[in-house]
Amino acid sequence: MKLNLRPAEECKYDAVSLGEVMLRLDPGEGRIRTARNFRAWEGAENIM
Fold it and tell me: Are strands 39-42 and 23-26 parallel, antiparallel or unpaired?
């Protein structure tokens, strides 16, 4: 399989990183259905 890459002079970035983040959304004491605000934080243990 051959990769068709553009020459370096035509590229804006040297590298691209694709990853994932699991966000936890906490509505607090209320219900999700009626919440107007959520606290958000990363939920995976391996994220630094």
Answer: antiparallel
Looking at residue 34, what is its pLDDT?
A: 92
Three state DSSP letters for the chain: CCCCCCCHHHCCCCCCCCCCCCEEEECCCCCCCCCCCCEEEECCCCCC
The token duo for 38 is: 């959520």
Cα-Cα end-to-end distance for the chain: 35
Q: List 24's β-bridge partners, or say none.
A: 41
pTM: 0.41
Q: Per the structure block, which two tokens stand in for 2?
A: 């051959």
pLDDT in tens, 36-48: 999 988 876 665 5
